Amino acid sequence: MANVSQWDRGQMLIIGGVLLATTLVILVLLLNSAIYVENFSSRGADSEVDRTVNIQQEIQAEYEAIVSNSESDEEIADWAELNETITDQFSLLVDHHHQRALERGAFLDIGMTLERGLLLDGYQTELDEPVILAEGITGSHSLELIINLTTLEKSTPWNESLKFSAGEWEMFINRTSDEGVQLIGADGETLVSDGNAPEETRIDILGGALNDESGEFDWSSSGTPPTEDGTFELTMDPQNEAAPNIEVSLVANGSTVDSDLDTASPIVDRASLEMQYRSGDLELSMNSSITRWADR
Amino acid sequence: MSRAVSVTLDYVIMLGISTIAIAGLVTGAGAVLDDHSQATAQTELEAIGETLAAEIESLDRAESVGTVDAEYDLKFPRSVAGSGYSISLQADEQTLELRTEAPPTESRVELSVDRLSIETTTISGGSLRLVVRDNTLTMEKQ
């Protein structure tokens, strides 16, 4: 006779085993899903792009500090020396970040060029490039160039020296906190001298026209059109620590000519930063620029 | 009670009950697994979508610092809940849409992209590459 109670126990064991196995499988699936979701949700906070952007912003802030410290260094005499100092210190900064990136298994390099220019309507113009001040003024028998300089707030003593040139014509404006304003012609002759050095100076520089044949300004009040196509180009070049606001207007035949330089055009320093970043998953190049008013 | 039935009948009854119990368990577990599979697929699609959206938005934020060119490789599972899926980047609606066929599941993630232009693309799920060129974001299958 068969032992019925043993069959019962066997079947109960089978059923119990199947139930246990099913429960385990479901638990494993649930746990797996939970871990997977948790892994994904925590990845977002560690985006490699965000890390790279943070590095770039950190470098920009450090660059600002370098420029600020260099500008307040009274031993730095001129723009060329200031540029060299900033560039050298920036190289050290880049080396530091390069090493830090290497420790994380990534490559990082940043190039920097520092330029001085004029900011016209938000766009920077090179100082040694002529700015078109007016077009279509053919036939003008009278031209008047008015330059309005406003000294930026700065510690004394200060000294601004700007060269203005249009074609063959050129003129220097020297402004110092001690000696005031001087207009000096190309031959070194002092044309105007004002020892008051007002904060805002409005100077009527020219009362004449550019002779397109001789390429020189005719200082008489009549003349021929400035160029064949009637374009008047002006170049402004700081000679030393000049950093005023510049407002230039051209008056042709008694009427002010529309110009990009009608509005105040501060001399600015602009650093162009080009970052290259490479890691296993990310290859990123980022170009940015920092424009600031030149303090010296 | 055992004395009232034969050994054979007793054996058949026990076998029948066991079969019915196991069949019930398998059917029940199958239904539970199906539900769980769909829920898991939905959760995974949402997780993948949110992760991908976060990376796209981080590239967009990078444009606020400067002009960016980038190639960014991202690794995602080739399938969710045992099924392949598709990822659609929709330019008009600024959304990411992720879909599986079996089980039929869909997840939609809103994108907050202000600076980059988006190129509408649909690729199959798995590893992909985000490319930013000339202020335009594209998505490529790897």
Report on the architecture of this protein.
The complex is a heterodimer of chains A (296) and B (142). With 296 residues, chain A is α+β, with helices and mostly antiparallel strands. Chain A is built from 3 helices and 16 strands. In chain A, the strands form 3 sheets. In chain A, strands 1, 2, 4, 9, 13, 14, 15 and 16 form an 8-stranded antiparallel beta sheet that branches. Residues 215-226 of chain A have low confidence and may be disordered. By secondary structure, chain B is an alpha+beta fold. Chain B is built from 1 helix and 9 strands; from the N terminus they run αβββββββββ. Chain B has one helix at residues 7-62; strands at residues 67-74, 79-80, 83-90, 95-100, 105-110, 117-118, 121-124, 128-133, 136-141. In chain B, the strands form 2 sheets. In chain B, strands 2, 3, 4, 5 and 7 form a 5-stranded antiparallel beta sheet that branches. In chain B, strands 1-8-9-6 form a 4-stranded mixed beta sheet, with helices on one face. Chains A and B meet through helix 1, helix 2 and strand 16 of A and helix 1 and strand 1 of B.
Key terms:
heterodimer, A: 296 residues, alpha+beta, six-stranded antiparallel β-sheet, 3 helices, 16 strands, elongated, B: 142 residues, five-stranded antiparallel β-sheet, 39% helix, rod-shaped
